[in-house]
Design goal:
By secondary structure, the chain is an alpha+beta fold. α4 runs antiparallel to α14, α10 packs parallel to α11 and α16 packs across α17. It contains 17 helices and 14 strands. It folds into 2 domains: 144 residues, Aspartate Aminotransferase, domain 1 (Alpha-Beta Complex), CATH 3.90.1150.10; 274 residues, Aspartate Aminotransferase, domain 2 (3-Layer(aba) Sandwich). The strands form 4 sheets. It has a 4-stranded parallel beta sheet, with helices on both faces. It has a 4-stranded antiparallel beta sheet with strand order 11-12-14-13, with helices on one face. Strands 1-2-3 form a 3-stranded antiparallel beta sheet. Bound molecules: 3-[O-phosphonopyridoxyl]--amino-benzoic acid (PXG).
Amino acid sequence: MSAIESGNSANKLTRDWQDRDHRHYMHPFTDHKDLRGKGARIITDAEGVYIRDSDGLQILDGMAGLWCVNLGYGRQELVDAATRQMQKLPYYNSFFQTAHPPAIELSSVLSEVSPPQFKHTFFTGSGSEANDTVIKLVRRYWTLLGQTDKMVIISRKNAYHGSTIAASTLGGMDEMHKQTSILLPGVEHIEQPYYYGLGGDLSEDEFGLQQARLLEQKILQLGADKVAAFIAEPVQGAGGVIIPPATYWPEIQRICRQYDILLVADEVITGFGRLGEWFGSTHLGIEADLMPFAKGVTSGYLPLGGVLVADRVADVVIARGGEFAHGYTYSGHPAACAVALANIRILRDEGIIERVRDDTGPYFKQRWAALAEHPLVGEARSIGLMGAIEIVADKSTRARFDKDLKAGPTCKDFCFNNGLVMRAVGDSMIVSPPLVMEQDHIDELVDKAWRCLDLTAASLGHSE
Ligand code: PXG
């Protein structure tokens, strides 16, 4: 078959997949009318830090799948761990006074790699289920302590905590709230620490304190005896890689302690090395009482989530509480736990997290920061291996392009077509690449991002 023929047959296959995709597959978070016009991009295989589509285009995966493929693609050790476990014991539960080695081992290993206050883990199948579990744990804790009025959980606008009704309520995404319509009672939201978007004339430090003190104001408004917990991502991910000013988290910690409010750090994105520590909380000096996690625990090879439970909560809910009436069929799924164990072993043995902290993270920071010199970029910020750039029409005023021009989505499309996955959150472009990226991959990522910003500027008719 000639190259042209094989190209044609690949395209025909792509069209066939796109057609069946349109007829049968309801995608998550997708406008299907919009998708119909373009056809889905069909990803067929992947290796290392690259994915490949059904037309044979190799694409650098700047998002590690969906913030999860920390080890990159094609790690045989993870495949072998799943295979071995599926042959030995593909499924069993831990409901009726039973357990199995992979879940026991994984909960033990998690207590080693997490901060010292965590010795227990409750497993789930996803980050959303982990956050549903958080709500129940928080309420159970205060109820067992006889403080039945301490019910309200405070969260933040533009937070993402998952898609179940409870997790959508916890999150601060307006569109999700509108569409969910039946939200959980007892959840309140405060404004986010988004300095570029909301900082105005304040210094970063002043703004960090101001935004943290919104929590104190909310607690005082509701009454500390009514507030059970505060939940936040150490660094907001889906909201657009919002990195809080250095003053933010210490002040939040002070407030939670002063008013006796449980602190929940949602580590679904920041866990397992993203910021160059096992958990984002460690990097930012947060001492949490509960830490929901998912994604990077298995590098996304199999679905698994959970909640790390600090002794303060475990001593009440587990030691004194009787039955905790909560659990999922796939809580602690043996194959998923086996993959997580192999994943954590590789992260440890190959020193990947230390490499992010000492080498690739600092290198990424410096290369990424240079994107701020591009005429379209108002800010380029990063932490660990997470980064965002703000596309603006006017750097000095931070004015955005007209929404209808779709600057962010246009840039995202240029990126995909030119071999780079970079996500658009409105007109913020974000990346969160696999932790196994090397310096030359980072060069490739930044060079491609610059070129696609050029293409975006040209298509918007923007000159400096
Ligand atoms: N918490 C955080 C901080 C997350 O980022 C979840 C909870 C929910 O996890 P599950 O496993 O239920 O999806 C997430 C998930 C995006 C995007 O658009 C982000 C997530 C999921 C889907 C899309 O960036 N994060």
